Amino acid sequence: MKIIDKTPLQDADGNIGVFERVQGTLKYGLSWFGELEAQKAVIAQLNRSLEKGFVLIRNFTLPNSEIVIPIILIGAGGIWVIYVTQVKGHFEAKGDQWNTINSDGKSQPAGINLIHRVSQLTGAFQKYLKIQKVDMPNPVESVLISVDPGAQIESVRPVARVVRSDAIKQFANSLLQSRPIWRPEFIHELADRLVDPRPPAELNPVKAPEVESGQQPASRAKAIFNASDQQVSPFNTNDLGFDFEEDGPPPVQQNLSESNVARPQPRPRPVAEKKKLFGLSNTQVIILVGLLVFWLCLLAGFGAFIYFTQ
Questions:
Q1: Helix axes of 32-49 and 18-28: crossing angle, nearest 10 degrees
Q2: Same domain, yes or no: 96 and 182
């Protein structure tokens, strides 16, 4: 499996320094570094199972945006957007809901809806494919992978495929058995097109070549993306029609129990753009203020120590 690592803030050896770790935490959230480590574990398992015909793109930032797609996996059977989490506890993935289950067996919405998050990331990536004029025979599939054995997840027809830590190998095997929709040599061409997007003036429709006879792809009449012959503007998050806050609109609906059948996706409801202080979210502002208070207290203590020891 070919791996293209686009993780921001890491050096040439794939390491992230202390300063970069603080910077990434402020920009991407408290769980950012832990999720990077969890990604490494999942990628290692996938790499042992998947053949050379797969390409994995890690932490690709969509052009002209700050949206980072954690894992994009491209194979002969399609494209999968994968979000890796290290949560612990008892959860329920039901439809577009992500709930926690307490000791009494009652469920309530979790603080962060991971099903919502991976569905939104998939919707953003599908929009990027359309802007790049990539003709997709099948919809991109959302996948949520939990790496912690302590996470117990009950799935009730979730809109994203949920994979527990002990089922990652089975997930990889299912990808190997997927019905091919394009030839293996096209996969690398497609990956290059995604990580090195063409300017609008040079965009030409990209179609997947037909597979060999006896392995017919899904009907293109049901494809959710059709390549356009007219020029389009570069990727813009305003074109998505939704934001990436946890209280945003419902995620893109997909019935993954029938993932081999392409079907149109309902458009997310537009939401009003939220104002941010210097481009930072509320969580990032709180973290920054906390660090400032910590340093001020440290300086005050150091000054008091010098004053009383003289």
A1: 100
A2: yes
* pLDDT grade for 281, boundaries at 50, 70 and 90: low
Highest-confidence segment of 59-73, 179-193, 221-235, 264-278: 59-73
User: Residues 65, 66, 72, CA angle at the centre, nearest 5°?
Assistant: 95
Looking at the fold, whether 69 and 187 belong to one and the same domain comes out as yes
Using left for φ > 0, alpha for ψ between -120 and 50, and beta otherwise, residue 117 falls in alpha
pTM assigned to the model = 0.70
- CA neighbours closer than 13 Å in the CB half-sphere of residue 33: 15
Backbone torsion region of residue 47, taken as left when φ is above 0, otherwise alpha when ψ lies between -120 and 50, otherwise beta = alpha
Q: Which of 252, 275, 235 is nearest to 61 (CA)?
A: 235
Same domain, 120 and 147: yes
Residue 204: pLDDT band by 50, 70, 90 thresholds? Answer: low
If one counts the domains in the chain, the total is 2
Q: Domain limits at 295?
A: 275-310
